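Before drawing any conclusions, I looked closely at one protein's amino acid sequence and its C-alpha cells, quoted below without any editing.
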Amino acid sequence: MTIRYTYGGEGALGFERFGKAHSRAFLLALHRAMLRIRRLEEEIERRYRQDQMKTPVHLVIGQEATAVGSCAALRTSDLAYCSHRTHGVYLAKGGDLTRMLCELHCRANGCAASRGGSMHLIDKDAGMAGTSAIVGGAVPIAAGAALASQLKGEDRVVIVFLGDATTEEGVTSETLNFAALKQLPLVFFCENNFYSVQSPLSTRQPPRDIHRWAAAHHVPSVVVDGMNVLAVFEATRAAVERARSGGGPQFIEAPVYRLRAHGGAGDDSQTGYRDPAERDAWETVCPLRLFGDYLDARGLIDSQSVAVMEEAIAAEISSAFDFALSSPDPTQEDLYRHVYAD
C-alpha cells in the first residue's frame, strides 16, 4: 500500500498568524471544547461494545478542530445542520451532553426522544437545528432555513456541514446554485477527510480541488487547514460576517482526517482501504496535539491547568452516562407520539 493523503498545513507554526489576536480565556476555551469532544468519544468508544448504546455511531476523533473552530464563530441563534458524523458539531454548538447520551442509549428523554440515535441529534435551544443520515440530506434543508431567515429579515446565518462524498450528490450542486442565485446567508463547510466509508477520494472523483469546484457555482470559496482550530475559526468568522451582512453564501473546504473507522469503535485501517502508516502520520498532527503544543510554547497552558480540565470533563461525562443509563426507556404508549396521518 501507499500513503495517498498527507497533511499539507503548517503544523504548530500555523497558529502564530492568529493566536496573538485572542485572549488566553478564548484560546483555553477552544482547547477545552476539543478536549471535551475527544474524551467523550473515547468513552463512547470504550463502552460501545457493551451493547448498551442501541445506535450506530460515527466518531469525529481527529476532526475536533473543524467543529469547535467553526461553531465558535456562530451565535446561539445561528443554525447548524450536519450529516451522520454529528457528535462534534452538536457539542461545539452547545448541544446538551446528557440528552445526547440519553439519545445514544435510546431513552425516552433523549434529545430526539429515542427516535433518532447518534445520526439525528438536535437541540433547538443551542441552534443545533438537525442532522441527516442521508448523504447530502441536510444540504437543501439548510438552504430552506437560510431562505426562511432571509425572507423574515432575521439576523441569522445558517451553516451546513458536509463531507467530501456529499459534493458528489446532485442536490449539493443544485443547492450551491440556488444559494448563489438568492444570495442566501448560508455557509457550506466541507470537512474533506478523503474517504467515503472505505472508498478513497481518488477512486470517486477526478483530480480537483473541492473548493474550486464549489467556486464554479459562483459561491466564493476558500480552503483552510482543518487541523488548525484558529485557522478554522478565522475562515468561518469571515464567512459568517459576509453572510450576515448580505454578502451571500460561502464555501469552506477543510482537509481533515478521521483517526477511527467510518463507523463504530476502533480503527479499520487493517482492512486494507488505507495504509496504517497514513493514519499514523496524521496522528502526529491531530488538532489537540498541535494546539496544545502551541499553547504550551506560549506559556498559556501547563500540566496543572490541563489536569483541572481533564478532571472536570471526566466528571461531567461520567455523570451524563450514569444519568442516561438510569433514564426510562420509551413505552408502548409513546410509540404513536409525533406520528401524523390523514
Remarks:
- The first helix runs from residue 16 to 19.
